[in-house]
Amino acid sequence: MDLEEMADRLENAADRLGDVTERRMRNVGRQGVARIRQNASGRPGPNVITGQYRASWRSEARGIPYGAECTIGTNAPQGRRLEFGFWDMTDSIGRHFFQPPYPHVQPALGAIEDALHEQMRAVVQEVLGD
C-alpha cells in the first residue's frame, strides 16, 4: 500500500468513525442495561416485587465528534438506596431503618467494561478493515 492509498483509507475511516462508534456504543448500553436488570432480579441484588424498578433502567447513546458516549441509569428514587443501602437512619416521624446494600450495578461494571473493549475493537476493525 502506498501513501496515497493509506491517506484515502484513513480519510474514509475518519468519515465513518462517528456513526460506527455510536452504533457500537448503543450495543454496550443495551448489554449494560441487560446485565444490571439481571443482577436486580433477586439476591444478592434486590428482589423483584413489581418489576418496575428493574424496568426503569435505560441507556442513552449519542454521537459526539468522531465518537460517541453512552449513559446508563435509572430515575427510580430507590436506585441509590438499593445499591448502597443505608445505616442507622431515622425518618421524620422517628422510625428507625437499617437496609443492607443489594449491589446490582457495581457487579455489572466488569461485564460492561468488557463489552466496551470488545465493541471498540470492533469499531477499529470495521472502519479500518483488513
Number of structurally distinct domains = 1
Percentage of residues in strands: 15-25%
Number of helices: 4
- The termini sit apart by 12 Å
Proportion of residues in helical segments: 40-55%
Largest pleated sheet: 2 strands, antiparallel
What's the shape? elongated
Strand order of the largest sheet: 1-2
Order of helices and strands: HHEEHEEH
Q: Count the strands?
A: 4
Low-confidence stretches: none
Cα gyration radius (Å): 21 Å
> Mean pLDDT, nearest integer?
91
Label the structural class.
Answer: alpha+beta
Labels describing this entry:
130 residues, alpha+beta, two-stranded antiparallel ribbon, 4 helices
Write up this protein:
This protein has 4 helices and 4 strands. It has 130 residues and is α+β, with helices and mostly antiparallel strands. It has one domain (3-128). The strands form 2 sheets. It has a two-stranded antiparallel sheet. A hairpin with a 5-residue loop joins strand 3 and strand 4 (96-99). Helix 1 runs antiparallel to helix 4. The chain is elongated, with a radius of gyration of 21 Å. The relative contact order is 0.19.
Quick take:
By secondary structure, this protein is of the alpha+beta class. The chain is built from 4 helices and 4 strands; from the N terminus they run H-H-E-E-H-E-E-H.
Topology:
Layout: H1 3-39, H2 52-55, E1 58-64, E2 67-73, H3 79-84, E3 86-90, E4 96-99, H4 109-128
Antiparallel strand pairs: 1-2, 3-4
